[in-house]
Amino acid sequence: MNQVRIAINGQALDVPAGISVAAAIARLQWPFRRSPRGQARAAFCGMGVCFECRVRIDGIAQQRACMVPVREGMQVMTDE
Amino acid sequence: MGHWLGVKSYDLIIVGAGIIGTACADYASREGLRVAIIEPGPIGGGATAAAMGHLVAMDDDPAELALANYSLALWEDFTGIEQIEYSRCGTLWVASNEAEYAHIPAKIARLAAVGVQAERIDSDQLYRLEPALQRGLTGGMRVPREAVVYPPGMARHLLNRACARGAALYPQRATAITSHGVQLEDRTGLAGSVLVATGCALPQLLPQLPMRSRKGHLVITDRYPGVIHHQLLELGYADSAHGDADSSVAFNVQPRPTGQILIGSSREYGSDTSEVSMSMVRRMLERSFRYLPALRQLNALRIWTGFRPVSVDGLPYLGRVPERPNVWVAAGHEGLGITTSLGSARLVIDQWLGRTTAINARPYDPARVATWA
Predict the structure, then answer these.
(1) Strands B119-122 and B147-148, how do they pair?
(2) pLDDT of res. B244
(3) What is the pLDDT of residues B176-206, one digit of tens each?
(4) pLDDT mean over B205-234
(5) Beta bridge partners of B46
(6) How many degrees, rounded to 5, is the angle at CA B293 between CA B102 and CA B216?
(7) Is-contact B27 B21, C-beta < 8 A?
(8) Containing H/E element for A62?
(9) Is B251 helix (H, G, I), strand (E, B) or coil?
(10) What is the pLDDT of residues B327-357, one digit of tens each?
(11) How many CA atoms lie within 13 A of B190 on its CB side?
């Protein structure tokens, strides 16, 4: 299987090509973001509707991780 | 039809669990009525979910003001309930020129006449309160006791209270009003008085009451706490709200308790799809940037649309449906239904109970439709 290397919060991670950013983050079991009251949030619907999985991807904030496939060299920032 | 064996009987069968239907269910159950509520979709999932949730007294029409003012007092019982997210940010109406500024004392007098406290502020005070506003504005009017809420949370809360008092929720569609009550999709018959609170969908059950749908767009940003502090509107907003143009936009932005900023507003007849119109969004945002240029730098998270239910004259239909014994209506609140939900419920249920209403119910009497024919 083809692998791509991405970085999540600076940590390099080799993942199968074609998976979503949400699937990649889930491998690390880190929170995707925080609710206004500080609770950890993660991907929920997995199909772009619930907006729970928003992260920064290559400098652009509030991307739905479940809707974006991983790309070689991608920089992802979670839980900002 | 015909087999009414095992029919369930209620005092009042409410069709629709938006904020109007749930407010009616809450008050009716509190007064001891046996209530059924029929809703095939999510609770507060129509116009209630699409709405901004601004609790506001509009002073342009006396009947609208009376109903809003009556309702705003009733809202005071809901300030401490978490899921309603009540936030008393106040309303700040912004004057962009001397003519708008000159109208403020008359507005304050109309509000004061019903007991709503408002104050005129000059431009210095305006920028102290809201430093992000565009320079060169003339001043404004502050209504400090007004608030914002989360409308679907309110609908859910009202329904839960009603159900805790024994109200029954039927999660399906009402297909017809019968001579006895209501028929449901699965052919269950419910017997009792019927109260239709289905907003834009009113013509499906009561085609004799005209109802138009007026589309709106809203944009919500990421969290930016402290950019604005009040619900901000241009004083020209009422021209957009009460005008009959095919489409209009007005500056109307709101600080959510999360720090997010809700940006409105647009009004549009003739569009019946829920699709976002980017040209309408652009118009709306350009209007808001004129008053609040800081918005340009912010990230938006999503855009959605909703439909306001508009009656013949912009006032809701509240009361008995003409020539339909035992059929009642509470619908057509246009853009003010969150504010006026609680008073509307009292007006209808108090009439059903044969009580004197707290405010004059006549302006909202559905019978007035005959005079518009």
Answers:
(1) unpaired
(2) 75
(3) 999 999 999 999 999 999 999 999 999 999 9
(4) 97
(5) none
(6) 80
(7) no
(8) strand A60-64
(9) strand
(10) 999 999 999 999 999 999 999 999 999 999 9
(11) 29
CA distance B142 to chain A (A): 28
Q: If you search the block for the tokens 């419920």, which residue do you land on?
A: B345
Residue A39 Cα, gap to closest chain B Cα (Å): 13
Cβ-based contacts under 8 A for chains A and B: 12
8 Å CB contact of A36 and B223: yes
- For helices B19-30 and B337-352, give the axis angle rounded to 10 degrees: 40
In CATH, the architecture of A3-77 is: Roll (3.10)
* Per-residue tokens: B21: 């239907």
Q: Which residues pair with B333 in a beta bridge?
A: B310
CB-based burial label for B370 (10 Å; 0-12, 13-18, 19+): exposed
Domain ranges of chain A: 3-77
Backbone angles phi, psi at B250, to 5 degrees: -150, 150
Identity of the residue numbered B329: V
Peptide bond into B344 cis (omega under 30): no
Q: What is the ipTM of this complex?
A: 0.76
CA distance B308 to B212: 8
**In this complex, do A62 and B222 lie within 8 Å of one another by their Cβ atoms?**
yes
Q: Each residue of B225-256: pLDDT tens digit?
A: 999 999 999 998 877 777 777 899 999 999 99
Rounded to the nearest 10°, the torsion over CA B316, B321, B322, B326 is -160
In chain B, which residues have their Cβ closer than 8 Å to the Cβ of A51?
301-302
Structure tokens at B130: 């809201």
Distance CA B50, CA B73 (A): 24
| Residue A31 structure tokens | 């929170």
Shortest distance between the Cα of A74 and any Cα of chain B, in A, equals 21
Domains of chain B with bracketed CATH: 8-49+151-210+313-372 (3.50.50.60), 91-144+213-309 (3.30.9.10)
**Nearest-CA residue of chain A relative to B258?**
A36
